[in-house]
Amino acid sequence: MPKAVKVKRYKNIYKRRTPLSILLRVVCIVVVVGLLGFIGWSAYEPVRAYLDSIAFEWKNNPTPSLPEIPDISASPEPEAPAPESLPELPPEPAVSASEPAPAESEPAAPEGSEIPSGTQLRGAYLPVSDLLDPNLLAARLSDFQEAGYTAVLIDLKDANGSLLYRSKRGRIPLEEGVTPYDLSAACEQIRAAGMLPIGRMHTFRDYTAALSDNNMAVQYLDTREHWLDNSREKGGKPWLNPYSEQARAYLVGLAEEAVSMGVEQILLDSVMFPVGVRLDAATYGETGDVSRSEVLSAFVRQVSSAVSAKGGTVSLIVRAADVFSNPDSLGGDPLVLSDQITLNLSPAVLGENFSAGGFTVEHPMQDPGDTVQRMLDALSGRLPGQFTALIQDPNNSTAMVQAVQEVLKENGVESYLIVQESPNPN
User: Left (φ > 0), alpha (ψ -120 to 50) or beta: where does 77 sit?
Assistant: First the structure.
């Protein structure tokens, strides 16, 4: 007779799950899903910014390797400044440099045209379009002569990094649609009219050069990707890195070239660290113990030394609004960066309302003269003995310019530059 199969029963076989165990299981599932969601959300922004930077570079440089843009670090080195002028910046890793272009002789700097100490500069701005036509330039210069101007402000490099003149040293390609002007010819014509050419040059706000050489750019989280000042969809762009020796050498070389081509004074603009979003993700390589203020002031001295050797001078553009707010992008008080200051006192740059550092003004453009007077009063005792005032007039208003000129004269500020897109000195 076959052996009976014994069925083994466990005591919990018929036991049902209690409501408490079901609830605990549901809670555990919810906690795990929530944790995964939190991790995903935390990683979203860095990953998105990283992909944005890749997409931006692909859009601007669609080929796997950059086109034939020579390494800017191979440009001739500027004259070395005085030993104490530069802080001990950390060395950068060696990079391969393409073969430098054959050296071209530069025109000698004009003789006997230096700006004497204490000279009163009364200058007006000429847009690039006026510099492309010698006849139009002559007409503008005639107007300026009648108005008593002694200097003419022109742009050398804009905030995109485009070189607006025909440069031999700056080999960064121009943006599409930008026609470069003949800087030497323009300076010669300005001097022949009895005025001095002043050249404004943006420095570290320069996405064109940053894209051309990754070693000069601010990096994203210490990677080889560019940090962008906004998302790609909103037009975010890379910046040059003030700690980069190559970036500084590139800018110094352009300033030297401009003076050699006839520019009397270089106005340095955007001498600053980046502004924008995700500043916590912007990295600058090995910075050592050199502060932001130190590296920026060292750069200004470096340019001044190189330009002085060519017979020119340098002045740093400082926004009055930044003197009140002391932003981190400038490492604090911008007035310590240089003793040669061109102070932007333009009411227009204060926005609709402004309040910082104990200075408050509402609707600055309602009474431009009063706004400028209030800024000068608030800055009394902090400004250098001599400085040049820069006034931007977005409305091309003759009345606004005259009101500001009167305030400057009453306060003993005899040197000024008036910036209008369509200058009207009358």
Answer: beta
Q: Answer yes or no: are the C-beta atoms of 198 and 151 closer than 8 Å.
A: yes
Cβ(216)–Cβ(176) below 8 Å? no
Give residue 378's identity as a one-letter amino acid code: A
- The percent of the chain in helix, strand and coil, each rounded to the nearest 5, is 40, 15, 45
Q: Where are the alpha helices (DSSP H) in 115-271?
A: 128-131, 134-147, 183-192, 207-212, 245-260
Q: How far apart are CA 258 and CA 107, in angstroms?
A: 10
The beta strands (E) that lie in 121-272 are given as 122-125, 151-157, 196-202, 219-220, 265-269
**DSSP state, 163?**
B
Angstrom distance (rounded) from CA 356 to CA 315 = 25
Give how far Cα 73 sits from Cα of 96, 220, 239, 257, Å.
Answer: 10, 22, 17, 15
pLDDT digit string (tens) for 384-402?
888 999 999 888 888 888 9
Find the range with the poorest average confidence among 18-32, 270-284, 309-323. 18-32
